[in-house]
């Protein structure tokens, strides 16, 4: 009999790590100028906390693109030049790093397919989400069974952009145009992605309402750079 698998999802905050300011303290990004030893300790703590071996955390070299990689085992280095990971392998934890962009965690529990996605303005605009859904379906997932969790990100209340940029993103990602609390043009990428997922037939969509720009418990590149990176993690855990 196949083991019963439970899909687990986690979003980290700034608290509980080893990094010094301005990366204080639970920075998981190794590309932002932080002490590599502190980042390594933070990553080991993440693995310990979620009950996964450190070598079974799979990281990405995120580039704001629409490349998707299907992985079937541990990777000694971050998967190069990709913004989404998909797997059917139990106990393999997929990690997405963000500090204002939208982290998306997807799963078809029945098919045993999960994904972690980095969807910033550029990636969302050029179609990273449809690419991920295609990859999941190639492994047996069905849109109506997929559940999506959109994590903490820059909110439409705070994400200010030029009017031309707002109009351009809206053309490619309808539903994302908004107005900020200051009355200026803005983007709500989570709203646009939610609409995109709904139109693709995704069965359940949840959104963590926290705004990275407003919430000082979270890292935000817009609020203050340099800064650290939050982790969004998804994995399938066997019953214990």
From TrEMBL:
Q: Name one GO molecular function term.
A: hydrolase activity
Family of this protein: Belongs to the purine nucleoside phosphorylase YfiH/LACC1 family.
Q: Give the source's domain of life in one word.
A: Bacteria
The cross-references to SUPFAM superfamilies, in alphabetical order and at most eight, read: CNF1/YfiH-like putative cysteine hydrolases
Among its keywords, does the record have Metal-binding?
Answer: yes
Q: Report the protein's function.
A: Purine nucleoside enzyme that catalyzes the phosphorolysis of adenosine and inosine nucleosides, yielding D-ribose 1-phosphate and the respective free bases, adenine and hypoxanthine. Also catalyzes the phosphorolysis of S-methyl-5'-thioadenosine into adenine and S-methyl-5-thio-alpha-D-ribose 1-phosphate. Also has adenosine deaminase activity.
Q: What is the protein name stated in its UniProt record?
A: Purine nucleoside phosphorylase
A Pfam family that this protein carries is: Cu-oxidase_4
Q: Which cofactor does it need?
A: Cu(2+); Zn(2+)
The organism is Nocardia donostiensis
Tell me which UniProt keywords the record has, alphabetically.
Copper, Hydrolase, Metal-binding, Oxidoreductase, Transferase, Zinc
């Amino acid at each position: 009999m196949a083991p019963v698998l439970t899909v687990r999802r986690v979003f980290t905050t700034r608290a509980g790590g080893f990094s010094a300011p301005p990366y204080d303290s639970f920075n998981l990004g190794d590309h932002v100028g932080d002490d590599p030893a502190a980042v390594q300790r933070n990553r080991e703590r993440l693995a310990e906390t979620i009950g996964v071996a450190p070598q079974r955390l799979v990281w990405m070299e995120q580039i704001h693109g629409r490349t998707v990689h299907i992985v079937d085992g541990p990777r000694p280095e971050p998967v190069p030049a990709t913004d989404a990971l998909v797997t059917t392998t139990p106990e393999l934890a997929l990690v997405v790093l963000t500090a204002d962009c939208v982290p998306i965690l997807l799963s078809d529990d029945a098919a045993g397919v999960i994904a972690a996605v980095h969807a910033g303005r550029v990636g969302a605009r050029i179609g990273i989400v449809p690419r991920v859904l295609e990859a999941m379906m190639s492994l047996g997932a069905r849109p109506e069974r997929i559940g999506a969790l959109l994590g903490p990100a820059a909110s439409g209340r705070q994400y200010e952009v030029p009017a031309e940029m707002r109009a351009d993103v809206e053309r490619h990602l309808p539903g994302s145009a908004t107005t900020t609390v200051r009355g200026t043009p803005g983007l709500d990428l989570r709203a646009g992605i939610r609409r995109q997922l709904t139109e693709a037939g995704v069965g359940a969509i949840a959104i963590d309402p926290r705004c990275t720009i407003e919430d000082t418990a979270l890292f935000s590149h817009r609020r203050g750079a340099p800064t650290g990176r939050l982790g969004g993690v998804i994995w399938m855990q066997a019953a214990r």
